[in-house]
């Protein structure tokens, strides 16, 4: 097993050096390294580096197996159906910001938050020229220590591939911080992925129960649960859209 992992990392390193020497862009590198190899490298860095450097290192290396390279289909559907409330939105772990820009409008101002400077540089580049960009702000910060200006609470928070990226031991703290950032009567939109039961990560396996266990103590309760949602082919049957409302300041 160790030999296999070492071999995988050596392949990744050779590919990275080859593309760097040719001046290849991030997207080309990502397409050239297999998803399996990317996941192995991601798990290695997350295990061995502090949280504030591991994700930045992954983006610098062009490794982002969670990245759909486009807007999440469920978000496209919600926007098209006008099934989103107005107000201030937060998207933690926003990566390249596709969903941030898609959610934004004159009635929805969206903050895309990420711990990686590299991902946000790319996000700003991708957003430039999009008419929705004027309603978007990208912030480089750690979710767990982030304090919005004037401590203003958000009307909605969108979680996708963020909860599953956290070590399960951090989930209670994630729920506490989410409740702190979300206004009373605010909405948490969780696109749960990957549903299932298995050991290890990231991504760590998630379930509705795993969310409920940490969110209920902070006054968040399910308002809707939908399995029938648009998904990319590789994630069909492994996602669930669950919406929550914060009914109390604290349980």
Automatic annotation (TrEMBL):
The keyword Ligase does not apply. InterPro entries: SAM-dependent_MTases_sf (IPR029063), TPMT (IPR008854). Gene3D superfamilies: Vaccinia Virus protein VP39. Keywords: Methyltransferase, Phosphoprotein, S-adenosyl-L-methionine, Transferase. Signal peptide: none annotated. It comes from the Eukaryota. The keyword S-adenosyl-L-methionine applies. This is Thiol methyltransferase 2.
């Amino acid at each position: 097993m160790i030999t296999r992992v070492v071999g995988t990392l050596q392949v990744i390193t050779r590919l990275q050096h080859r593309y760097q020497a040719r001046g290849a862009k991030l997207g080309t590198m990502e397409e050239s390294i297999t998803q399996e190899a990317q996941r192995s490298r991601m798990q290695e860095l997350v295990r061995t580096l502090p949280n504030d450097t591991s994700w930045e290192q992954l983006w610098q290396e062009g490794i982002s197996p969670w990245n759909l390279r486009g807007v999440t289909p469920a978000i496209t559907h919600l926007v098209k159906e006008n099934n989103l409330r107005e107000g201030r939105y937060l998207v933690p772990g926003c990566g390249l910001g596709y969903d941030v820009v898609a959610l934004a409008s004159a009635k929805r101002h969206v903050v895309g938050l990420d711990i990686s400077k590299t991902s946000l540089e790319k996000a700003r580049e991708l957003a430039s020229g999009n008419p929705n960009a004027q309603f978007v702000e990208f912030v480089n910060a750690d979710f767990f220590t982030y304090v919005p200006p004037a401590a203003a609470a958000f009307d909605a928070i969108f979680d996708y591939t963020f909860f599953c990226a956290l070590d399960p031991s951090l989930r209670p703290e994630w729920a506490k911080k989410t409740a702190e950032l979300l206004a009373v009567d605010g909405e948490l939109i969780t696109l749960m992925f990957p549903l299932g039961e298995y050991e290890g990560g990231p991504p760590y396996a998630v379930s509705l129960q795993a969310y409920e266990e940490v969110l209920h103590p902070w006054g968040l309760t399910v308002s809707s649960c939908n399995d029938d949602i648009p998904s990319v082919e590789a994630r069909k049957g492994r996602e669930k859209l669950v919406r929550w409302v914060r009914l109390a300041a604290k349980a």
